[in-house]
Amino acid sequence: MRFLLDESADFRLGRYLAALGHDVTAISRDYPQSLADFDVLALANAEQRILITRDRDFGELIFRQHQRHSGVILFRLGPGDYMTAVHRLDEIIENYHPDLRHFLVVTRRGIRTRGILSD
Fold this sequence. Notes:
Blueprint: E1 2-5, H1 11-19, E2 23-26, H2 27-30, H3 37-46, E3 50-53, H4 57-64, E4 72-75, H5 82-95, E5 103-106, E6 111-114
Parallel strand pairs: 1-2, 1-3, 3-4, 4-5
Antiparallel strand pairs: 5-6
């Protein structure tokens, strides 16, 4: 699978996914930093990457402004919840494969799929 880590995402998640054999890029390492959210989402969509973020503004872009995307995983966990994030990623990869082009919201209590599909 192809992933893009937003600047707000825990960079260790990218290393974890890469170790599993996934194609992972990161805004903080592979692209000009401080890109606007609109540009990050457009970049992820153009490269057919699932965006991993902690930034809720992407929901605004997708649900209110109807921007195209290739899937978003929004982590709503605390900064000390790295292991919870890893377990949730494992669960997403294993059980949510058909939903990866959706907008997924990850919390301590579980994973929620939000309705709008990508184009």
